[in-house]
Amino acid sequence: MHEPEQRAERGTGLGRLAATVERLRQEVREAHAAADGRALIELAKGILVERLRCNPAEAARQLSALAERTQLSQLELAADIVNQAAQDRLTELAGQFVVSAVEQGAPVSLQAEEGDASLAVRLRTAESGILAARDTQAVSESLLQHALAPLGASVVAVWAAGTDGSLTLAGSAGFASEQAMRWRYVPPGVATPARQALVDRRTVWFGDLSEVGLPSIGHQPGEKSGRVAVPAGNGGRILGVLEIGWPHRLSPQPPAIRRQVEALAELVAHTLDSHPVTAPQRPDTELVDLANGLHDPALILRPHLTAEGRLTDFRIQHTNANFVDFAGRSRSAVNGALMLEAYPMAAGEGGLYEKIEHVHATGEPFRAERMPLTALIDQVPLTAIADVSISRHGESVLLIWRVLDEAARVAGLLQHAQRLGRIGGFEENLATGEITWNAQLYTLLGLPPTASPIPLQLLPQHAHTDDAVAIGRFLRTLLHHHLPASTAFRLQRSDGVSRHIRVVAEPVLDAHGDLLSVRGAYQDISAQHWTEVALAATRDQLAHSEQQAAERNRLALQLQQAIMPPTHGPIEAFDLKIAVRYRPAEEEHLVGGDWYDCVILPSKKVLLSVGDVAGHGIDAATGMVILRNALRGLATTGAGPAQLLTWLNLVAHHLTEQVTATAICALFDPETRTLRWARAGHFPPIMVRRDEATELPLIEGVLLGALAEAHFEEGSLRLEKEDVLLMYTDGLIERKDRSLEHSQRQLLSVATAAVPSLEQRLDHLLTYSKSDTDDDTCVVGIQLR
């Protein structure tokens, strides 16, 4: 794979997943190596405890001090201590290797690199790793890492020998997962290097495996590869074979290396004796014969259980002669592998593995058409559509699939498209009179499958009489002018049902332009016809409703503009300057019920008010007129703001049709320069004094019209010279993405801007307000001079 392709693959989700898995595997290998080294050091500590009669802590200090004095690592010193205490074959082998390397000189490729551990360390570390390993796979990885990689070896395989002469791959290291899966099981009689070592009961060395022509795991034809296969026995029994491979031609090895390999085989035998590998159970002969007799790909699966009897997977024990993997792999690539190893994507929820598990548990067969099957090849998912059959036979499960080719898939798609579109196809041979219909057309026209097809010439006999002219024009264009044609008519079916049908046809001409046949399709358009009828009626009703709505909006806008003009000149009275800004909604259908009022009462007090009726349109506009005029009339009584809102609440609750509104009512007394005010669910006014803006205290007051009887609290303040009081409706600050509290804080910041006049202050507020709801907006400003 080229470098850009590798980068692209790493960029995908599967590439990242593969990189993560590889990183975790490397961390596990490093953790195992560290654990093996610690095990060897702990073993040396135990020897010191026994020899020196000291406690473990003192033994650890002694080991550290000895390593420092001898200038060795603790791991190398631990290996020496174990060798002196054991005096076994590994000790003898290490000594002989050192003597041989010094006196004769070992091959350069087999000498340890500078900084590598000594042979004794490698052998003892491999031994401790093997003894601590939980399975043969971990033993294989420990052998390659500690003992064989320094010798230049790149792969190792541990084979378990079966009683029938078969070989089962118990563990491997350095091979691709696909290779290990393909060589999971070697039947009796297959010639391999491991088989030769097992039969001859001796170590077999191959300088170049390609020269002898024996197949083996990880070996490609023509590839130069050195191999050695060593029987792994214990007590006269051969339990398996240790196979080691080099990525190059292997020259004859010295006796020290040969004895080292044989010593490692003894360690492997100990592992195979401690962790026996069970060969795959052979499937039933009758079931194999049944699978081999099928023309479709078939797999025989056996449950793979833990020591506690819990199902973890299914082993692929047999693939029939017609097996073709939908991902392009050969039979040997999946035969003997676990189902989730060969097809990991089958483990998805509701996927193939779940169906196999259900069939095995219940015995209930499973059948499915057009089921997606996915295989993961080099981290790339490949998906095929297949018909699947799963059945249980004793303890085995038979899995059969038939991958749909492109023609079958297209035919299936066409059949479903015709069914969903209520379409039936036909072809009529005008020379022989033979007519061909598909099955869908019989259902469409309400005829049994045994009925005779209807010729085009007899079509008027099965249609409504009013459609005879249209059908005649269709037949004339098609049969006489030899041109494609289509028409719609009302079909009178034999079951008494009337359907709206569209027929489309084209002529088939010979080389001389003579008409040979006609082919085409019928489509049931009844639902479309009645939909169009209902749509036309709905369109008319919608147009009428839009016209009424536009008229109501126009009346509401005219009413609002008559009472609340967008521009209003300033009012000056009693050293009080009042300015008003009103911004109507941009859309006519959003005309709302915002109002303001500024009037000098007979008592020489000034009435100031703003309000907002809930809703939009004519109802909101008329409600605004009622409440605004009612408040102006009630104010002539001389009552205070709280009392005025109490009466206005009765008007909203009893004298209108469910009108609710917020409002502020204020009375300014020029003699005392005192402003008394009350609120009904509205935002409190803003006081701008000496370039600082603050809200007036929030006093009690509920929404107008919400309750039959409501209590309103009254507040008052004395205005100072150049004070500015601002009253506004929510259209000034409402936002879809922010809370009202946040918008109110922004409004206080905008209100403190230095402006030369009251009118410019209000214009500044409208210009820099953060609202985005396109609602009506009223702003009333009061400035004492």
From TrEMBL:
State the UniProt keywords alphabetically: Hydrolase, Transcription, Transcription regulation
Note the SUPFAM superfamilies from the entry. Answer: GAF domain-like, PP2C-like, PYP-like sensor domain (PAS domain)
Task: Tell me which residues make up the PAC domain.
Answer: 485-537
Q: What InterPro entries does its record include?
A: ANTAR, Bact_Sigma-Reg, GAF, GAF-like_dom_sf, PAS-assoc_C, PAS-like_dom_sf, PPM-type-like_dom_sf, PPM-type_phosphatase-like_dom
**Is the Transcription regulation keyword given for this protein?**
yes
Q: Which SMART domains match?
A: ANTAR, PP2C_SIG
Q: Which GO terms describe its molecular function?
A: phosphatase activity; RNA binding
**Key word Magnesium present in the record?**
no
Ranges for domain ANTAR = 21-82
Output this protein's name. Answer: Serine phosphatase RsbU (Regulator of sigma subunit)
